[in-house]
Amino acid sequence: MKLQFFQPTQELKPYITKIWLGENDIGLVNHGTLIAPNAKAKIIIPFRNALTTTDNKKKTICKEGDIYFIGIRAVPVTLGSPKGATGSIGIELTTEGAYKFLQVPMYHLTNNLVSFADLYDTEGTELINRMNDEGNPKQK
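Predicted structure:
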């Protein structure tokens, strides 16, 4: 798996701690990557293939081409994907950044993930569409 990390711009540092781009030619089938909770909300953008998370026998699918807000996790998850080329962008938020995005208490989204289309209605859908129009993952 090719994993690249990017520093947020100075203007975004109060809101974002990490940005990463992960790509893999074969997917994460039976990969068994365990993601430990770290008290940070995240945004995940699976731009090539879907991603799955499994915790306490609950499996959630992050569809390709969507943008998801991931609430603070209290339990670890196992990350996977269907076979095939996989690519995703991750953004880890500071506490202030998560609040700025949602303006609701984090306990409403603890151990859950929600599409931007559901969180932000038309604006969320428009952002998803603009992201999908970009071909280059770094531009997304």
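Summary: Helices lie at 95-102, 116-133.
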